[in-house]
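Let us begin with a simple case.
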Amino acid sequence: MKKLLEFDVGETIDLFLFIKRARRSIASSGKPYLILSLQDPSGEMDAYLWDVTPATEATFVADAVVRVAGEIQSYKGKKQLKIRSIRLTESYETIKKEDLLPQAPVTKEVLMDTINKCVLEMENSDLQRITRQLLRKHQEAFYEFPAASRNHHSFVSGLAYHVVSMLELAKAITPIYPMLNKDLLYAGVILHDMGKVIELSGVAATTYTLEGNLLGHIQIMTMEVNKAASELDIDSEDVVLLQHMILSHHGKEEWGSPKRPLLREAEVLHMIDTLDAKMNMLDQVLEHTKPGEFSEKIYSMEGRMFYKPNTNK
């Protein structure tokens, strides 16, 4: 059976979907409507439910599983769903929200094994102990959470999958640039986004927590590194260097970094983080783009539409 993002503009759908987000807005007529982000294993798509009542708003909320019929449309270069009918699932229907969540393409066991091997490669005992301590502390959520509420790696185990992809990039880069501190780069890669297990609410219908809204994952993780170092009785320059890696990994203040990269390893961390995030966004969009055509607009990448070459690759 075709999944949500596999349908073309003009086609009709009748699918079980998961409400990832539900937001109320007001039309120019003064009537309320809902913007629903609907999801299945192929990804998510926005849909609009018009002329809603308070009862409708109370029914179709984030974290609900629904059956939806409608038509795929295009608006400003992006697919959206025009809802014809929508209802909650019935008790006899066996579909569960877990069946509708996108998953990382590899198992948690594979992700865990790859990360643990990189930790074992570290020769700096302080960086290794801090990294191991924080992996142990946040293990369950770290291997379950997405890397973001939307855009890149926004799927089950997306956070750990993002880290593993970045570790593979780091492994490829360090032999070319042997002046890099591999242990510091590995620790920065593994820990740079770990604060998202506190910043975000969880796997399904992901939102920002109080700490996420008021502090953010960068500040959260900087404090977590400090706590771990204190618990392990580590007082060395390495702690400050690792904190700088986390504080600067977004690259610029306007992109959310309290500091710009001031270490070679911090600059590399920022670049491979950006590379992996953008490649994942492109993969998600181009997977559902026909060869010889342009993708829908990717608003997180300046609204650009990317061409998918008419080849077999």
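The second case is a distinct protein. As before, the sequence precedes its structure tokens.
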Amino acid sequence: MRWLITNRNLDKSDGFGGDLAKITYWTADPSTKPDLSKRSSWQQRTPKQFRDALAAAANNFPHPVNTSIADQKHLCLFVHGYNESFADSAVLYDGIASTLFDGPEGLGELISFDWPSKGSLLGYLPDRSTARQVADDITNVFEELYNWMSDKQAAAATNVDKACRARTSVIAHSMGNYVLQYGLESLWTRKNRPLLVSLLQEVLMIAADVDNDIFRAGENISHGDGEGLANLSYRITALYTGRDDVLGSSAGLKHFGKRRLGRSGIDRTCPVPDNVWDIDCSKLLLPDVNGLSIHGEYFQQRETTVYSLMRRLLQGTDRSVLIASGEVPLAHPHVQQSGIPPSSPPRS
């Protein structure tokens, strides 16, 4: 199934526009080979219909008690970046879903959270403003997930057969990470800053257009920008490359030169939470792609090692295994020594 949550306006054509509107919910059946860039290919659902259909899909996942971590299925949210029209984001979403989530070896269900990017290179600063405004909507989406998982956790305490069957994850690209950052920070505050809660098992921050010191508070609680993200996630992986000229320009546009996480990796002059790490993808991306195009190249070559890496990360493969196998470069030697908790997180 294809899943869409969007707060774009309905435009006069067969699509969605670039203005902020009330959040709506949609589904489409991929077996009919729909053109997902057209609104007529989607069926609008009420919030309850959408939640019920998603819960029914998750209930068909294999039970975690007798299924290995790598074979368990996901409910994964995809948040696109800046400069994405609805048509472009729909095509991008469908490509990720068909590559990683469809078929017998698929990872489960991918849901698109589609926000009203202007779809223009000249719209960078308006996109940044809109991304901040939509945080309330994605916070509400995450709160629904939080409450649902809390209910499942309570049910599982009395009957293990009622345990949540889905791993929960997020793939965020570019400025979508800015949306994600503020959404989870707001949720963490709204829920009175709960600790030791794994709302999300795996978070992939790809070409993230956020400050590279976002996790500068480390393990401390000090109202930092990335504390909600770090405390509500089991593991966060930032994929970056210094070849990304889009993020090089981004740093100069609005933050007095502070480097971007998706271009420079994590600022390791600051403390870093143990569940956060980064991977330099410069050698994994095609060498002949120029610095502007490489910003979206992570998703363009479906047979590349980047997609394979994303699959392994979502499957919960421990970073020490990925480093030892040579699947990722060891850019920061102390990362290998610090390790992370076992790959099986608490489950609701």
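Confidence is low (pLDDT under 50) at residues 333-348. The CA atoms of residues 7 and 115 lie 6 Å apart.
Keep these points in mind for the review questions at the end of the chapter.
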